[in-house]
Design brief:
The complex is a heterodimer. By secondary structure, chain A is of the alpha+beta class. In chain A, helix 5 runs antiparallel to helix 7 and helix 6 crosses helix 8. The radius of gyration of chain A is 19 Å and the shape is globular. The N and C termini of chain B lie far apart (120 Å). Classes of the chains: A alpha+beta, B mainly alpha.
């Protein structure tokens, strides 16, 4: 009924179900037809209608580089301590990814065993991985697995093939990169960080 | 090729071993000799023959197709590495033949000019399509960052080379316009105008590729920069100064995603009506099992109903009713059957039972249960009002329950 009244796309429910869970909808996700949902939201007409509709119940669709997510309107952001803890851990994780030879980027596919293997062969990586605070895991492989599971829960990764345990990095990974990029380091002037942000090619 | 082969031999050899050729084309540099000979569609002898014909090469136990064959397939399928060098050769040849034609206006030079003009056109288009495919493929599939960046840079150079060739071709065509006009050759006009149109189109396409490449490189560069930043942040964090030397706290406190702000998915209560349904029962049962509540597990699901359950159900209902009714009647001795039926309070579920229905029930019971009833063969009268307020009188037989004494007498 409402759908005809508001002229909403018929996937509205699915979109809400995913995003209200706090998950991202990425353009290169394939589970549950995620790329299709991305296209639905990305259509400008649909976007305006969905935005207006969700705004009524105080959800706001936020647009990132090839991904969407929800924020709450008129509500102060809460749980600062938990958030700080989470993102401190993400700094550890991204630092690990950054230090690897085969850098993981959007669209790359990898298996936890590959990362564990590389960490095993490189003392520096091994130390980094071991120092990431995680709850259970003893072995390197299980630690990497736990990181992957954590990141899938936060919808940055997608478990593409359960049998081979192969993960794919989704566009929402940009969100993490953006957060890290927006942190300014006050050290010996701010010029250093400016250099990093400059885009080299026209 | 070491042996002289003609086109027919080559084609028939390729065709005979098409399975092998397809495999080797699809999995270049991966197939070993043993793997290949393990297949059903090639024997040792056939393999030797293909190697002797130079169609297959064997190097360190790995089999590969002749490069010329691979290149032919790739050209047709417009895949493979971008090789703008060909265009350069064609342009040089074109220039050479134009010079010849300027010296001596002979048809054979004109034919070559046409040939090379056509070749330049098709090759340019093909190379550009390959370039587009390769750029896309590199960005999506190359896992090593440094190589990825390098490859994209290479493609950018190749793109510049192709643009240079387009410029050269355009200037050659412009310079020789007068010469071409003299020839008065309609075919040449057609080729030149097609070439001109596709040069413009291809230039547009290349500009698009350029923006793609730049975009891809920027994205990768951005990721690399962020990765560097992450490493620096990690350093700061390891020094324990993350909260003091950066605005980490501020940035994180501004994070507005639902997940990181502890918003849970909206939860709804189960409607009570749902619990009465079969699905609801299954749900209850599962919960009962979980918490070991046996009381709930006693009540089971009803069996599946038969297709004609409606008709059957009705019949049974009436029969049961009459049986019970008769039983109750037999257990009392105050009223005769007629009076009993007229006064009997039927269950509410049956609804209002009319006078006529009670009468037919009377007749039915009298006929069906005559052995259990005591027929007095005396008439009694009953006064009632019919629909149109006409007073009517009905005569009926007195029927009483069979008394114990009578039963014995009858026996």
């Amino acid at each position: 009924m409402e759908e005809t009244n508001f002229n909403l796309p018929k996937q509205t429910h699915e979109i809400f179900a995913i995003m209200a869970r706090g998950a991202f909808i990425s353009s290169n996700g394939s589970r549950d037809g995620m790329n299709r949902l991305y296209d639905v939201i990305n259509n400008p007409e649909n976007f305006d209608r969905l935005q207006a509709y969700f705004n009524v119940i105080r959800y706001n669709i936020e647009r990132g580089n090839n991904f969407f997510y929800f924020s709450k309107l008129n509500e102060p952001n809460s749980e600062l301590e938990k958030k700080l803890e989470r993102f401190e851990r993400y700094i550890d994780i991204i630092d690990l990814f950054a230090s690897m030879d085969n850098k993981i980027g959007i669209g790359s596919r990898f298996r936890p065993s590959e990362i564990a293997e590389e960490c095993n062969a490189n003392v520096r990586l091994k130390q980094k991985l071991q120092k990431i605070p995680l709850y259970r895991s003893e072995t390197l492989h299980n630690k990497v697995r736990e990181i992957c599971e954590l990141m899938s829960r936060d919808s940055y990764l997608e478990l593409e093939d359960e049998k081979s345990e192969s993960y794919k990095v989704l566009d929402s990974y940009n969100y993490l990169l953006d957060v890290i990029n927006s942190i300014a380091i006050y050290e010996e002037g701010t010029s250093a960080s400016d250099d990093n942000q400059a885009i080299i090619y026209n | 090729m070491s042996l002289q082969v003609n086109v027919k031999d080559l084609l028939s050899n390729l065709y005979h071993n098409r399975g092998v050729v397809e495999l080797l084309f699809g999995q270049r540099d991966h197939v070993t000799v043993n793997e290949l000979l393990g297949r059903d569609d090639i024997t040792e002898e056939q393999y030797r023959k293909l190697v002797s014909l130079d169609i297959l090469y064997e190097y360190e136990n790995v089999v590969s197709l002749n490069d010329a064959v691979v290149a032919m397939f790739e050209d047709f399928m417009e895949i493979g590495e971008v090789t703008p060098g060909f265009i350069n050769d064609y342009i040089n040849e074109l220039k050479r033949h134009i010079r010849f034609y300027q010296e001596a206006r002979e048809m054979r030079f004109l034919r070559s000019i046409k040939k090379y003009l056509k070749r330049i056109n098709t090759t340019l288009t093909r190379e550009i399509i390959k370039l587009q495919k390769n750029v896309d493929d590199t960005y999506k599939n190359e896992s090593n960052y440094r190589i990825k960046l390098q490859k994209l840079e290479d493609y950018r150079e190749k793109r510049d080379t192709i643009i240079e060739f387009i410029r050269q071709t355009t200037s050659i065509v412009d310079e020789t316009r007068n010469l071409f006009n003299i020839t008065n050759d309609t075919e040449l006009f057609g080729i030149v105008s097609a070439l001109k149109a596709s040069l413009i189109e291809n230039l547009d396409f290349l500009i698009e590729i350029q923006t793609d490449i730049t975009d891809f490189i920027n994205k990768i560069q951005y990721q690399l920069d962020v990765y560097k930043k992450a490493q620096r942040l990690k350093e700061v964090k390891d020094h324990g100064t993350l909260h003091y030397k950066t605005n980490f706290r501020e940035v994180v406190s501004n994070i507005n995603t639902l997940k990181y702000n502890g918003h849970k998915t909206p939860k709804t209560k189960i409607p009570i009506d749902f619990l009465y349904s079969d699905d609801g029962h299954v749900l209850c049962k599962r919960i009962a099992e979980k918490y070991k509540i046996t009381r709930l597990m006693v009540r089971g699901l009803a069996d599946k109903m038969a297709g004609n359950f409606k008709d059957k159900g009705l019949e049974q209902q009436i029969k049961l009713d009459t049986e019970k009714l008769v039983e109750r009647f037999l257990n009392q001795s105050k009223l005769n059957l007629f009076e009993y039926l007229m006064d009997y309070k039927f269950p509410k579920a049956i609804g209002n039972v009319t006078f006529e229905e009670r009468l037919s029930l009377f007749v039915e019971i009298a006929m069906e249960y005559q052995n259990k009833l005591d027929f007095k063969y005396r008439l009694q009268y009953h006064d009632y009002e019919a629909e149109n307020k006409v007073k009517k009188r009905l005569g009926y037989t007195l029927i009483w329950p069979l008394k114990e004494k009578n039963k014995k007498q009858q026996a």
